[in-house]
Amino acid sequence: MGNYLKIFGMSKIVGIDLGTTNSLVATVDSGIPFVIADANGQRLTPSVVHFAAANSEAIVGHEANRVRLVKPAETVYSVKRFMGRRGAEISEEEKSVTFPVKADNAGAVTIPIHGKNYSPEEISAEILKKLKCDAENYFGEAVTRAVITVPAYFNDAQRNATKRAGELAGFTVERIVNEPTAAALAYGLDKLKEKSKIAVYDLGGGTFDLSILELNEGVFQVLSTNGNTRLGGDDLDRKIVERLKSLVVEAAGNSTSQLLHSSTLQARIREAAESAKIKLSTETEVEIALPFLTPDFSFSYKLTRTELENLTREIILRTRQHCLRALADAKLEARDLDQIILVGGQTRMPLVRKFVGELFGCAEFEEVRGGLRMGTEFHKAGGPQLNTSQNPDEAVALGAAIQAEILSGGFKNVLLLDVTPLSLGIETFGGLMNVLIPRNSTIPVKAGELFTTAMDAQREMLIHVLQGERERAKDNWTLGKFTLQFESAPRGVPRVGVQFEIDANGILHVLARDTKTGKEKIVEMKSAVDVDDSAVQKMVEESVEHAFDDLAARRWIEAKLKAQETLVATKNALTSCADEIEKDYAKKISAAARVVETALATESSDGSGDLNQLKASVLALDEITKPLADLLMDKAMEAMLRKRGLIQ
To answer: Where in the chain is CATH 2.60.34.10?
Structure first.
């Protein structure tokens, strides 16, 4: 993307997640949010700052993190915990860091290094300067405006301190946004129905919090938040490190115990522990190798996921009380929630996901709309949805970028070279064409949209690029096809951003990106502008001639997909509740389902049918199955309570 032509009508606003452990900068390009990588291709920047000498330029990020254990007194980490706070507010436990902290009663917190007292804002500004530089390298121009996120529980002083840090870094801070709100934006939850309630479970490297939001007129309101500013992935790493140290002593004898005080060795063990923890989120066991701890001793150990979970379970369980308090403060029960979203790298752990799912009684959601295109209507199947569709490390930054894009008003082309003669789009489920760039759009132009899957366990998505003005894909021209692979997941979970860019030469570049992993594929298509005039004229004339038929076909296909999903859901519900419902009621439901099937059978060879009959039959089936849906929800709640031992 960095080599592509970028034209902006106004200065770019970036979104920044200024985190306790890691920080990120993100942007939105033609409707697709993504995190900007640094010169080494790394998207996460450790929130670590090292000062090598007095008046020397600060070292930030991965390089600073590497020298953290070697020169701890000159390396600052987790400074976010001190932002906007007075000395009297800092506990002794919080002061127990490896760098000096001066916190005198009513005075501001300072960090004395090399004879200079740094404020937390100044340290944070160094992190923000690094992110600013990464963004400017990507855009090739100055970036001076930003949206920065903060925890929902930050008070005015802490928010002002964050804004001040941004200003010290050279930003105009356009807005301070709550982290759970940003995460909800990244997950697309602003498209849910009014009064939807969402819980954001955020377990990062150094902190944990649970926030409950409610959607009101497109705006998220924080109903409650609770957490622990000293609970996170660092605690999990510490448990693994302690275990490895004991195993080293056991294997090599007590003579190595003194060796374990070596800063270099501690750094090696800590790095190995963190790496093993990350790998065990996707693997069941991992080999930890620490060669040549001494000239004649090397250590290796096979750590299993089960052992990791036994080591860290107590730490994960400590989040439970904060979740329950947040629910109580919001005067809600878990069943009142619509979705639970996971934020923070530690939520990749299977143990964490299982714990959260059981704590909140999560159940799967099914999309009401079928098709490749992302739907926004969901129905409950017994509890809130555990939504893991976004990269937990990047969700907050992506949401900040979305908020920034809203504030900036989007991209505006200032160069008029040509126009697209025909619309460009992709084929979606059901054989329809979804237009991304309408005909007569000026070029250069970019446009993008997020899509999802329509089938369970789908591992790839076919991107079928089309040009034309007809509603159905088969009636338009094919420009090309390619596939994007991703992890197997339930339907509706993957999020794939598809972006079209027509450059100044009229060449179409198509990008498909898995928003969870960042995996992407860019394909150059043939010229989207150099089309024979007579062919264009014929396509436009055909679209006008068949306009009513095409529109009817689209409406029929969309209604058919919904009807088919409703029939499947009804059949599954009847099977699940066969022993709990009266036979006469089951017969009525089956009869209503047959009416839907009869309406579907009206489809003719040209792909259309009796739309009114189909809609009416589906509406009738929805109405008659309401008691069945209530029964399903009651069964799910009973099963959850029984599983927790609350009922016999």
So the answer is: 413-539
Average of per-residue pLDDT across 361-367: 56
pLDDT, tens digit (0-9, with 9 covering 90-100), for 525-534 = 866 666 666 6
Q: Which one from 80, 129, 446, 516 is the annotated catalytic residue?
A: 80
* Catalytic residue from among 74, 121, 134, 202: 202
Write down the CATH number for the domain with range 548-643.
Answer: 1.20.1270.10
Annotation says 234 is catalytic: no
Q: Give per-residue pLDDT as tens, 434-488.
A: 999 988 776 778 899 999 888 888 999 999 999 999 999 999 999 899 999 998 8
Residue limits of CATH 3.90.640.10 in the chain: 233-314
Amino acid at 330: A
DSSP classification of residue 110: B
Q: Which two tokens stand for residue 494?
A: 């993957």
Selecting from 3.50.50.60, 3.40.50.2300, 3.30.420.40, 3.40.50.300, what CATH number does the domain 188-231+318-389 have?
3.30.420.40
Residue carrying the six token digits 């100055």: 142
pTM of the model: 0.69
Beta-sheet pairing, 520-527 with 507-514:
antiparallel
Cα distances from 1 to residues 432, 522, 614, 631, in angstroms, run 28, 9, 45, 51
- Compute the CA torsion angle 83, 84, 90, 95 (nearest 10 deg): 30
Respond yes or no: is residue 526 known to be catalytic.
no
Per CATH, the number for 413-539 is: 2.60.34.10
C-alpha to C-alpha distance for 243 and 356, rounded to whole angstroms = 26
What is the topology classification, in CATH, of domain 13-183?
Nucleotidyltransferase; domain 5 (3.30.420)
Of residues 532 and 25, more confidence is placed in 25
Q: Are 562 and 611 in contact (CB under 8 A)?
A: no
202 is annotated as an active-site residue: yes
For the chain, residues classed under CATH 1.20.1270.10 are 548-643
3-state SS class at 209: strand
Torsion of CA 260, 266, 270, 273, to 10 degrees: -30
Question: Residues near 43 by Cβ (< 8 Å), separated by ≥ 6?
Answer: 24, 35, 36, 37, 393, 394, 518
Residues with Cβ within 8 Å of 514's Cβ and at least 6 positions away in sequence, in order, are 484, 486, 494, 495, 496, 520
Annotated catalytic residue within 174, 179, 235, 514: 179
The CATH superfamily assigned to 233-314 is ATPase, substrate binding domain, subdomain 4 (3.90.640.10)
First to last CA, the chain: 58
Reading the block at residue 126, the tokens are: 């160094």
Radius of gyration of the chain (CA): 28
CATH 3.30.420.40 placement within the chain: 13-183, 188-231+318-389
Tokens for 469? 């003005």
CB atoms within 10 A of CB 387: 20
DSSP string covering 7-39? --SS--EEEEE--SSEEEEEEEETTEEEEPP-T
CA 14 from centroid of its chain's CA atoms: 17
Establish whether 565 is a catalytic residue: no
Beta-strand relationship, 32-35 and 22-29: antiparallel
Residues contacting 169, CB < 8 A, separation 6+ = 125, 126, 128, 129, 132
Amino acid 480 reads G
Specify the residue for token string 């308090």: 325
Are 480 and 492 spatial neighbours (Cβ–Cβ below 8 Å)?
no
